[in-house]
Specification:
The complex is a heterodimer.
Chain A (H helix, E strand, L loop, with lengths): L4 H9 L21 E5 L6 H15 L7 E5 L6 H8 L7 E5 L2 H8 L11 E10 L1 E5 L7 H10 L4 E5 L5 H13 L3 E5 L3 H9 L5 E4 L1 H9 L3 E6 L24 E8 L5 H16 L1 H9 L9 H21 L3
Parallel strand pairs in A: 1-2, 1-3, 6-7, 6-8
Antiparallel strand pairs in A: 3-10, 4-10, 5-8, 5-9
Helix pairs in contact in A: 4-11
Chain B lengths: L1 H13 L2 H19 L5 H8 L8 H25 L9 H12 L3 H36 L2 H16 L6 H15 L2 E2 L6 E2 L14 H21 L12 H31 L5 H15 L11 H17 L1 H7 L5 H12 L8 H4 L1 H32 L4 H20 L2 H19 L5 H23 L6 H4 L3 H20 L13
Antiparallel strand pairs in B: 1-2
Helix pairs in contact in B: 1-16, 2-4, 2-16, 3-4, 3-14, 4-5, 4-6, 4-12, 4-16, 5-6, 5-12, 6-10, 6-12, 6-13, 6-16, 7-11, 7-19, 7-21, 8-19, 9-17, 9-18, 10-11, 10-12, 11-12, 17-18
The chains are: A alpha/beta, B mainly alpha.
């Protein structure tokens, strides 16, 4: 329905004529000091893992002459990061790793005065699908079993997530609405903390990105029940999608890098070049594969169009959920 | 036994010439980074991560572990000599380390810190070696109610102390809690307590900003007032013989703190929510509580130096555990190490101990070697730091001021925080003038942001029923002990047995 990845691809295909990742080599501008690499989430979650990975690739391949310094600012569903980056006094040395709260947080908190279209597009590194997980000790093996269990508990079924209005809560809210489920939702500081508390059986189920749950899945602790992707995921071929269950809904988390508002064109070209190289590196392509992300490459103007589309879609979705 | 063989192999690997060189360089660099106010192990590891791509992964992780250890040792140095916490993990070290330095016993404080750090690191390494998988499941059994109960216990250790003025302690804690809740509310995501509508408060009040303000600038003002313009200077002497006698003294008067810090620090470090800073503060509180002379804390008790230093080293090893076994970093520094591991092709998580035994035990082996190297290098540097203290305070005060400002800026790179720091420094000076204890406020601003969300998560879990803190097997006993400690002073007061608070002399 609203969030089909392919549909966006279709919309954007028209403008993709001459958009093969180009190397706009910026001879002139290079960073003069360490680069503030702000992350819109707390340590350990999906966004954080990706940021750390990107930083490591940049270091390993020696792509930047000054280090990227990760800076976790997850407070207020990423509002802390948006304020920090939009108020950066040195926009040429401030970049931000985003997720969908890049769209939802300014919508939900209009008083922050954040206009995401003022941010500088740099790179769309991929989109991350969502999966519904339970602990193996719960004895639930199918989505139908899960629905039955939730209903039998009369509102006492506990799920953890990263906060009201965050990506996982949008998915949970859609699912609850579609299946008439009454779920007790506990907000955490990040996806890592959520996965840890499912492993410790403090909560009964989560909607996490595969990267956040993979370690526990491989150890046999987590059972995936349902994917919120367009098609079944190669890494989890036996896990059905919500679309197969007859609901036209899929939802992805964007993994994109943006620059601070007011970044100079030279600096933007420099970072676009760096992140294009990271995107095309063997390491990143391998990461996309092993962590079940889908590539969704866009150039700068396509990214800004994509932001506009996503803001509209999230506006509708949040309104439908009564946010 | 297989574990021991792997561990021995790991240590032998760490002793190879290249690796040993990485350890010596890493510890020395870490020591200096840790000693610089504002820069801690996080910055050290982040800045030096690129270096690790020049050497094989084994040497790289050894290098990072060495920086990590060096920084933990180094944090104590400026805490003691200048009164500015070198890193957030060394804030509690200033409580007693600074008074010792003013009394001309800086060498005792530094030797105590070095030895306690060594013991803390060693205890943590042994616990890690023997019980890593079991401890990982302990960490998992700590849900929101358990973490909240633990935080309650930490506050209780600071309130339930004889000797201090209880109402003033409670006021100080509440003040810290209010400061700690500035910024975004984790549960609802809404901004709150944005004082004067200033955007700088949206990011919350950084702990290091408060700590440097209170202990760096506040302490400087206090010393200036105490000396009333007289050219005071301490004349510490530093000889090998003196150091040996300091070591004996440190062992005799700091063993209790070392013991508490080593074990409590490790345990708190293992919990992913906490890390080394809460671990060192809690160890300080507990050591003070079980001491026969709690009133001597804050005036230069070696136990008060040993406890946080043993704890921060122990906790830094402890926080490796959730990272390696669960893939969840227990501290910001381990989060950066995690990034390094991923690029070396290792997946931290439950499978790591099974799939990558060689790496895991090699890493732990290098912890042992780094720790030993760190204590030796640190002891060798102590005379240099002592020599620095021989400068008259009239020279030292501007140095402290500049270092505080630079350190505060290095931590957040935001001028707003510098002004806040100066305001906190002046505020702290006046609070101290009126005998308000400042340590509880510092504790509250660290623990408040952990305690508050866990309290609300717990109440969401139980639909608002507070009995959740009493009925769960782990949370229950902790909550009850905490409540007893909190109300102990009231009970004592009721029985008329409370010792009259002795007037705190200006130190």
């Amino acid at each position: 329905m609203l969030f089909s990845k392919r549909r966006f691809m279709g919309v954007l295909a028209a403008s993709m004529v001459a958009s093969a990742p180009g190397y706009a080599v910026a001879d002139g501008w290079t960073p003069r000091k360490p680069i503030d690499f702000t992350i819109m989430a707390g340590p350990g979650g999906g966004a954080d893992q990706i940021a750390r990975f990107i930083q490591s690739v940049a270091e390993k391949k020696d792509l930047t002459n000054r280090p990227l310094v990760p800076n976790n600012k997850g407070g207020g569903s990423g509002a802390e990061a948006l304020i920090h980056v939009s108020g950066a006094n040195d926009p040429d040395h401030t970049i931000l790793v985003t997720l969908n709260s890049f769209f939802t947080t300014p919508l939900r908190q209009e008083n922050l005065g954040i206009d995401i279209q003022t941010f500088t597009p740099i790179a769309m590194m991929g989109v991350d699908p969502f999966v519904l997980w339970v602990h193996k000790d719960a004895g639930i093996t199918t989505f139908e079993g899960y629905v039955e269990e939730v209903k039998s508990m009369n509102g006492e079924f506990v799920m953890g997530g990263t906060g009201q209005g965050q990506e996982d809560s949008i998915v949970i809210a859609y699912m609850s609405d579609a299946y008439d489920l009454d779920i007790k939702y506990i907000p955490y500081s990040g996806g890592g903390a959520v996965a840890k508390d499912l492993a410790g059986k403090q909560i009964m189920a989560t909607v996490n990105n595969p990267a956040e749950a993979k370690g526990f899945y491989e150890a046999g602790d987590f059972v995936p029940l349902l994917a919120f992707s367009d098609e079944r995921m190669p890494a989890y071929p036996d896990v059905p999608t919500l679309k197969e269950k007859g609901h036209d809904f899929s939802y992805y988390n964007q993994r994109a890098v943006v620059g601070a508002p007011g970044m100079s064109d030279e600096a933007a070209a420099y970072y676009q070049d760096v992140f294009t190289q990271i995107f095309e590196s063997e390491e990143w392509q391998g990461y996309l594969d092993s962590e079940s992300l889908s590539p969704l490459w866009m150039d700068a103007s396509e990214q800004q169009d994509y932001w506009g589309l996503q803001v509209e879609n999230h506006r509708k979705l949040l309104a439908a959920l009564g946010e | 036994m297989e574990v021991l063989a792997l561990l021995t192999d790991g240590m032998l690997v760490a002793l190879q010439p290249l690796n040993l060189m990485m350890i010596v360089i890493g510890v020395s660099v870490g020591l200096l980074i840790g000693a610089m106010p504002g820069l801690g192990s996080v910055n050290g590891v982040a800045i030096l991560l690129p270096v690790t791509f020049l050497v094989p992964p084994g040497a790289a992780i050894i290098f990072l572990a060495a920086i990590y250890y060096g920084a933990m040792y180094g944090g104590a140095i400026s805490s003691v000599t200048l009164g500015i916490p070198g890193a957030s993990t060394a804030v509690a070290t200033t409580f007693d380390g600074r008074p010792l330095a003013i009394q001309g016993r800086a060498s005792l404080a530094l030797v105590t810190a070095a030895l306690a750090s060594f013991v803390g690191g060693t205890v943590a390494n042994v616990l890690f070696t023997l019980f890593a998988p079991a401890l990982a499941s302990v960490a998992l059994s700590f849900g929101p109610p358990e973490v909240f109960a633990l935080m309650l216990l930490a506050f209780a250790t600071f309130v339930g102390l004889g000797g201090d003025d209880i109402p003033k302690t409670v006021f100080s804690i509440c003040f810290g809690l209010v400061l700690g809740s500035v910024g975004f509310d984790q549960i609802s995501g809404a901004p709150r307590l944005i004082l004067f509508e200033m955007n700088g408060f949206l990011q919350g009040i950084g702990f290091l900003v408060l700590a440097i303000g209170v202990y760096g600038i506040g302490e400087m003002l206090w010393t200036i007032e105490q000396s009333r313009g007289a050219v005071t200077k301490t004349t510490p002497k530093m000889t090998v013989k003196g150091m040996v006698s300091d070591a004996k003294d440190a062992t005799k008067r700091g063993w209790k703190g070392t013991f508490v810090g080593s074990f409590l620090g490790f345990f708190v470090g293992v919990l992913p929510a906490a890390g080394a800073t809460p671990g060192s503060l809690m160890s300080y509180g507990v050591t003070k509580m079980i001491s026969r002379k709690p009133e001597s804390f804050g005036t230069g008790n070696p136990d008060g130096v040993a406890a946080p230093e043993a704890a921060n080293n122990s906790a830094s090893t402890g926080s490796m555990l959730p990272m390696l076994t669960l893939g969840i970093p227990g501290s910001p520094t381990t989060a950066i190490l995690l990034g390094g591991m991923v690029i070396w092709g290792l997946t931290p998580g439950p499978r790591l101990f099974v799939d990558e035994q060689e790496f895991v035990w090699g890493l732990i082996g290098s912890f042992y070697v780094s720790n030993a190297a760190a204590v030796l290098i640190n002891l060798a540097f102590i005379p240099l730091f002592i020599w620095m203290l021989r400068m008259p305070f009239t020279v030292l005060a501007p140095v402290i001021f500049v270092l505080s400002i630079v350190g505060g800026y290095a931590a957040t790179r935001d001028m707003f925080d510098i002004w806040l720091m100066v305001i906190f420094g002046i505020g702290a000076f006046f609070l101290r003038r009126f005998d308000y204890p400042l340590a509880p406020a510092v504790l509250a601003i660290v623990l408040g942001p952990i305690a508050e969300p866990t309290l609300r998560q717990s109440l969401l879990l139980s639909s608002g029923d507070p009995s959740i803190f009493f009925t769960r097997p782990v949370a229950g006993p902790i909550t009850i002990i905490a409540l007893i400690l909190i109300f102990l002073p009231a009970i004592k007061l009721f029985r008329g047995k409370r010792k009259t608070a002795s007037d705190v002399n200006s130190g």
